TrEMBL record, chain A:
The keyword Ribosomal protein does not apply. InterPro entries: Leu-rich_rpt, Leu-rich_rpt_4, LRR_dom_sf, Prenyl_trans_a. Keywords: Leucine-rich repeat, Prenyltransferase, Repeat, Transferase. The lineage of its organism: Eukaryota, Viridiplantae, Streptophyta, Embryophyta, Tracheophyta. It comes from Oryza sativa subsp. indica. This is Geranylgeranyl transferase type-2 subunit alpha. One of its GO terms (biological process) is prenylation. It holds the Pfam family LRR_4. GO terms for molecular function: Rab geranylgeranyltransferase activity. PANTHER family: GERANYLGERANYL TRANSFERASE TYPE-2 SUBUNIT ALPHA, PROTEIN FARNESYLTRANSFERASE ALPHA SUBUNIT/RAB GERANYLGERANYL TRANSFERASE ALPHA SUBUNIT.
From TrEMBL, chain B:
It comes from Oryza sativa subsp. japonica. It holds the Pfam family Prenyltrans. This is Geranylgeranyl transferase type-2 subunit beta. Residues 7-304 form the Prenyltransferase alpha-alpha toroid domain. Its cofactor is Zn(2+). GO terms for molecular function: metal ion binding; Rab geranylgeranyltransferase activity. It comes from the Eukaryota. It is an enzyme of class 2 (transferase). Binds 1 zinc ion per subunit. Coiled coil: none annotated. Required for male fertility and root tip growth. Catalyzes the transfer of a geranylgeranyl moiety from geranylgeranyl diphosphate to both cysteines of proteins with the C-terminal sequence -XXCC, -XCXC and -CCXX.
Length: 691, 319
């Protein structure tokens, strides 16, 4: 019951209600009886009309009327008689809608009648009915759906319908339904390049003006703000996908030792990952769309795999693993690899635009059979400690760390047309004016405008250009956290991304967080420490592709999505964060090089509701079938219904060191058995040696 | 927990059990055609409150099966009413609660659902051909619970749902239809069950959904609408499936739901001080379950059943 006040029945009401109920009970019984006995007489139809007048939701009565209509119409041949039979049905619908304008059954009955195409439709009557209904409730989505149905049915041009939306919006700016319909119609017209809609620039400029007028009239109404966000997305997203980072980077030299080159631990295992990172999710990377040339024999069947938790066809990040284990080399030998992507119809973004900025890069790597010391030693033989800060970059040979990675392909990225930037700058000026209003939407929109502007400005030029925008928007997000505490964690998540952007866009500033971790007898690891920064999620992973040891401890991370791109990562510290399930760790199952994982003091096992249950592959989403690991665990009396997420995680990682202490899940019996069973390579568990 | 106090679980259990006996009131009669939905709402609420045993399972199942149409394989909303997917899902869900899917001719029911898939991947609700993304969810959810998803063209079903995605990140009832929290639940749920959540811009949709929280703490279904307890389920479950539920203020929402309780006679209403009904009682308790309210069983956001029931269905050994 929607909107009916709660009150005790008065005695006189009770008697009336009793009579009303008795009438309805009789009607329902009679209609069902007529339905089952296929009685389609005038009298029987009259009863169903009465029922639907009282209860338009009685769906079987609508079905009954359809059957009766089909039955009776077969006996009519005169067009007038047919028309009158249809009119009768239309009238029933109108009466029912008067009782409940949101009756699914009534609206569908009308569509069904029209679709029978037995008589010409009186469109004036139809649109008249709609006008009346939308005047009473301008947001009735059944009405709007019916309007779209009618427009399609009679072939009303989309330009006409667009005019109708502006009429409705002029009546009342606060009409989300009309703004919504406008966005649908406009995108269709732009895609079709209909007359008058050839220029996106002209159309969007006009739309910005229209919506800004609405926003300044009532800044607290949501309708316009969502429309504005859509316009902003249309204006700021790049026209075509672009490659923004790769690992290895152009010109780099990799080897197992690090004297004059970049140390790559995965070489030890005979695998060389190549990572390509695009500015938006793309699909279609294959041996034909990405050409790989090398003096080492590369198999023709290079498989490019999307690196994302969802494993979908589209991903920002793609990887291929070159097998280098069975190369014959007697002495130190150098191999080179060239990667190029030309204009490709195969590589396409979600919006369907294809890759059109050719890019080429090359790198070399060294292999040596004689390098036995490096090959035999397990890099993580000894317990890794996170406690001691290693010497900063300035104290060691800077060539150890490949900061060159940060530059990569930015010079190859195309500049956007100036229009976008001008448009956004105008909007920024406008919203700076509005923003002392304490309107949260104005502040949020301003922050989004600034970040969109930063993205466009730094495209094709230095990332440092972003810094000023980042700083201003950080201030806005901090304000928003105070202004709108109910959505605090949304703003914190947005702030976290900007924070990571700000930290990594300026190479000089970023160096403060970077160091090298010396390991006994081995090449040092590229180490990045981003601790105690209130990070809640990961952004701009494309700037961290080279990191081998990452300390993210003492933040508020609840998601680590994005880390899957770090295919060089060996050690990861997530201690003292807010990770609440094993499913949230899914990105780590994509990093083959990961050996050391610190998860101490998180919230795994604390929450009965798992918010990544459907993000990660599971039997519930049909992305994992019952697997052998489940069977293996059942044999050890591990409850699969309870531990399925832990089983799927530990089955897919290959850790040498793990720390889980300080998570509620460790109190559960069997967890240790599970971990050790599924992870035979584990040597250290919670700081203790595993036998 | 603020003004609404605590969850009056005992009272709600009594309300649900007695609603059953007030079949003859006008309100019950108006809902007569959806009694099978009512059974699902009431029984799931009982299970969430650890009180499923308050009803006689065999009686319930016998009644459920009396709504079955053996010739089509579908269920009607009540005895004598026509078959429709809306009630077929409720029937299957209730049988899942009691772990009694064996009462069904599983293939017959699955064929009924699969037979309603249209050429474009969409689903009709029944033989009369109404198309709506609600029916896509129902079809996918039902078939998945029956382990018969392979009977339909999943890719086409997913493509159709994606064609109903809007520029605000949400979904409508059909291509071009306005985003609505209930419809969003259906589409997100269907995509979740088919492992297709990558079609969703989680930040965009998450922001739209978290902005459904109104000043008083309750959630609405569309921008500029009033808060209503039922959206506690539609919005929360969608936010959980896309991992953005932390973007709303759970304490304020829990207070809103608890304020809608009839603490004297049991039951929960759409808004404070309105008349209670079984539908809002279910959505209120389900919302609290999704917010990990103490004493309430956790629920699965996609299948709309208690977590232990869903885990049992998909992880039990025979499957």
């Amino acid at each position: 019951m929607h909107g009916r006040p709660r009150r005790p029945d008065k005695p006189e009401d009770a008697a009336a209600a009793e009579a009303k109920a008795a009438k309805l009970r009789d009607l329902q019984a009679q209609v069902l009886h007529n339905h089952h006995s296929r009685t389609y007489t005038k009298e029987a139809l009259g009863l169903s009309f009465k029922l639907l007048e009282i209860n338009p939701e009685a769906y079987t009565a609508w079905n009954y009327r359809k059957l009766a209509f089909q039955h009776n119409i077969g006996e009519l041949s005169e067009p007038e008689a047919i028309k009158s039979a249809i009119d009768d049905e239309l009238r029933v619908v109108e009466v029912a809608l008067r009782q409940n304008p949101k009756s699914y059954g009534a609206w569908y009955h009308r569509k069904w009648l029209l679709n029978q195409k037995l008589a010409p439709v009186d469109f004036k009557r139809e649109f008249g009915l709609l006008d009346k209904l939308l005047k009473v409730d301008a947001r009735n989505f059944h009405g709007w759906n019916y309007r779209r149905f009618l427009a399609r049915f009679m072939g009303v041009p989309e330009e006409e319908e667009l005019k109708y939306t502006i009429d409705k919006i002029s009546d009342n700016f606060s009409n989300y339904s009309a703004w919504h319909n406008r966005s649908i119609l406009l995108s269709n017209l732009l895609i079709k390049q209909s007359k008058g809609f050839e220029s996106k620039q002209k159309i969007f400029s006009e739309e910005f003006e229209l919506v800004t007028q609405a926003l300044f009239t009532d800044p607290s109404d949501q309708s316009g703000w969502f429309y504005h966000l859509w316009l902003l997305a249309q204006t700021s997203s790049p026209e075509n996908p672009q490659l923004i980072a790769s690992w290895p980077s152009n010109g780099s030299n990799l080897s197992l030792s690090s004297l004059s080159s970049i140390c790559c631990y995965s070489l030890k295992e005979g695998i060389l990952p190549i990572v390509l990172y695009f500015n938006e999710p793309v699909k279609g990377l294959s041996s034909s769309s990405v050409s790989l040339n090398s003096d080492l024999v590369v198999s023709k069947n290079i498989q490019w795999r999307p690196l994302s938790v969802t494993d979908s066809g589209h991903s920002n990040c793609w990887v291929t693993y070159l097998e280098v284990s069975n190369l014959e080399c007697n002495s130190l030998q150098q191999f080179s690899v060239e990667v190029s992507i030309t204009n490709s119809d195969e590589i396409v973004s979600r919006s369907g635009s294809n890759y059109n900025c050719p890019v080429h890069f090359s790198f070399t790597f060294e292999l040596s059979n004689n390098d036995s010391t490096a090959k035999d030693i397990d890099p993580i033989h000894e317990l890794i400690s996170w406690d001691f800060s290693e010497p900063l970059l300035s104290h060691v040979n800077p060539s150890c760390i490949c900061f060159e990675q940060l530059k990569i392909t930015t010079s190859l990225v195309h500049k956007e047309s100036n229009w976008h930037l001008e448009r956004l700058s105008d909007e920024i000026d406008l919203f700076r004016e509005l923003h002392d209003d304490n309107s949260k939407f104005a502040k949020l929109t301003l922050a989004r405008l600034l970040l969109a502007c930063a993205a466009i400005k730094s495209r094709g030029s230095s990332l440092v250009e972003r810094k000023g925008y980042c700083e201003e928007s950080l201030g806005l997000f901090n304000d928003l956290i105070d202004l709108d505490p109910s959505h605090k964690r949304y703003y914190e998540d947005e702030r976290s991304l900007v924070l990571m952007d700000q930290l990594t866009c300026d190479m000089e500033a970023f160096k403060k967080y970077c160091s090298v971790k010396a390991l006994p007898k081995l090449a040092p690891l590229n180490h990045v420490q981003l601790c105690r920064l209130s990070l809640t999620r990961i952004g701009f992973a494309e700037r961290l592709l080279w990191v081998q040891m990452l300390d993210l401890s003492h933040n508020n991370l609840r998601s680590i999505e994005g880390l899957e791109a770090l295919q060089q990562l060996v050690c990861l510290n997530l201690g003292n964060n807010q990770i609440s399930s094993f499913t949230a760790l899914e990105p780590l199952t994509k990093i083959i090089s990961l050996k050391v994982l610190d998860l101490s003091c998180n919230e795994i096992g604390t929450h009965p509701i798992d918010t990544t249950r459907y993000i990660c592959p599971s039997p519930f989403s049909h992305r994992v079938e019952a697997c052998e690991a489940f069977e293996e665990c059942r044999k050890k009396n591990i409850n699969v219904e309870e531990f399925w997420d832990a089983i799927l995680f530990f089955k897919h990682v290959n850790l040498v060191q793990l720390c889980l202490e300080g998570n509620a899940v460790t109190n559960k019996e069997n967890l240790r058995t599970l971990v050790v069973t599924l992870n035979p390579s584990l040597k250290w568990f919670d700081g203790k040696f595993v036998h | 927990m603020g003004d609404g106090g605590e969850l009056a679980a005992e009272k709600h259990v009594r309300y649900i059990v007695t609603v059953e006996k007030r079949k003859d009131s006008f309100e019950s009669l108006v809902m007569e055609h959806i009694r099978l939905n009512g059974a699902y709402w009431g029984l799931t609420t009982l299970d969430l409150l650890h009180k499923l045993r308050a009803v006689e399972a065999d009686e319930v199942i016998e009644w459920i099966m009396s709504c079955y149409h053996p010739e089509s394989g579908g269920f009607g909303g009540n005895v004598g009413h026509d078959a429709h997917v809306l009630y077929t899902l409720s029937a299957v869900q209730v049988l899942c609660l009691f772990d009694r899917l064996d009462a069904l001719d599983v293939d017959k029911v699955a064929d009924y659902i699969a037979g309603l898939q249209n050429e474009d991947g969409s689903f009709s609700g029944d033989i009369w051909g109404e198309v709506d993304t609600r029916f896509s969810y129902i079809a996918i959810c039902t078939l998945s619970l029956l382990h018969r998803l392979e009977k339909i063209n999943v890719q086409k079903a997913v493509d159709y749902i994606v064609s109903c995605k809007n520029l605000d990140g949400g979904f409508g009832a059909m291509p071009g239809g306005e985003s609505h929290a209930g419809q969003i639940f259906c589409c997100v749920g269907a995509l979740a069950i088919t492992g297709s959540l990558h079609h969703i811009d989680r930040d965009l949709l998450g922001w739209w959904l978290c902005e459904r929280q109104c000043k008083e703490g309750g959630l609405n279904g569309r921008p500029e609408k009033l808060a209503d307890v039922c959206y506690s389920w539609w919005v929360l479950s969608s936010l959980i499936m896309i991992d953005r539920v932390h973007w709303i203020d759970k304490d304020k929402l829990a207070k809103f739901i608890l304020n809608c309780q009839d603490k004297e006679n049991g039951g929960i209403s759409d808004r404070p001080d309105n008349a209670v009904d079984i539908y809002h009682t279910y959505f209120g308790v389900a919302g609290l379950s999704l917010m990990e309210y103490p004493g309430v069983k956790p629920m699965d956001p996609a299948y709309a059943l208690p977590l232990d029931v869903v885990n049992r269905i998909f992880l039990r050994k025979e499957h």
